[in-house]
Amino acid sequence: MAVRAMNFKLDESQIEDMRSVASVYHMTITDIIKEAVADYLDKLKADPFYKLTANVEEADSAESSLILDAINELDDDELVIASSERFSI
Fold first, then answer.
1. Which residues of 40-75 are buried (b: 16+ CB within 10 A; e: fewer)?
2. How open is the CA angle 49-53-56, to the nearest 5 degrees?
3. 23 — pLDDT class (breaks 50, 70, 90)
4. Which residue has the higher pLDDT, 68 or 55?
5. Are 21 and 40 in contact (CB under 8 A)?
6. Whole-angstrom Cα distance, residue 38 to residue 32?
7. What pLDDT is attached to residue 67?
8. Is the dihedral of CA 62, 65, 71, 73 positive or negative?
9. How far, in Å, CA of 72 to CA of 49, rounded?
10. Could you tell me the CA-to-CA distances from 46 to 7, 39, 50, 70, 88 in Å, in that order?
11. Is residue 77's pLDDT more than 90?
12. Is the pLDDT of residue 8 over 70?
């Protein structure tokens, strides 16, 4: 897998926290950032909204069950139609 450099800004306190954690765990700041990003992306990609709206592979039966369970837990206020469109074929 190709590796690319990126530039981004963080609060000074976050940088100091990363330095501290990196020192204790004998890691590089890059390793901490890569792990944090991977964990966060896994969390977001597991969210039912992502699975329902992203262009991802079809969910298997276990994933479909999780999605349906999450939808069934939503109340009426959360199930608002955001937009609609009428068309004929």
1. eeeeeeeebeebeeeeeeeeeeeeeeebeeeeeeee
2. 110
3. very high
4. 68
5. no
6. 10
7. 82
8. negative
9. 13
10. 27, 11, 7, 11, 34
11. no
12. yes
What is the C-alpha to C-alpha distance for residues 5 and 46, in angstroms, rounded to an integer? Answer: 27
What band does 62 get if pLDDT is binned at 50, 70 and 90? confident
The interaxial angle of helices 12-25 and 29-46, nearest 10 deg, is 110
Which token pair is 72?
């069934």
What is d(CA 15, CA 21) in angstroms, rounded to the nearest whole number?
Answer: 10
What is the distance between the terminal CA atoms of the chain, rounded to a whole angstrom? 45
| Token pair 């609609």 in the structure block, residue | 84
Instruction: Give residue 51's identity as a one-letter amino acid code.
Output: K
Tokens 């890569």 belong to which residue? 34
Amino acid residing at 75: D
Please give the pLDDT value at position 14.
96
